[in-house]
VanZ family protein
Amino acid sequence: MPRFFLYGLIAAGISLVFFFSWIPQPRLELTALLPDWLSRWADQDENMNLRTAIPLLFLGLVTGIWLVVTRQPLRSWGIAWLGLVGVVGLAEAGQLLQPLRHFDWGDIGWGAAGSAAGLLVEGSFGRLLVTHR
């Protein structure tokens, strides 16, 4: 998988996190950008924090693929996780500038968990692939 493609996926994922975090209205169904079923699920009160973990899970997976492909040392995995937590922290901080949005530590926690899960899954899968070659 070309590195340029992975960089593009990571940049697109980070951009989407910022976009959906900084839209003025927290109700995603009002944006008409997502399928109805996904918007309804994301807008349920019990899923408000969990919905932050989903894009960070995918970002963790793609970042993990990049780390495996480029054969980064273990230290880089921790730095990558901190970077992804920084992305969700910045996204949450930006919500302080939106009158209908609010900063939520729960979103940061779920984002950190999602990115860790993505990195762990890809790290385990990537390690299996390397050992079976």
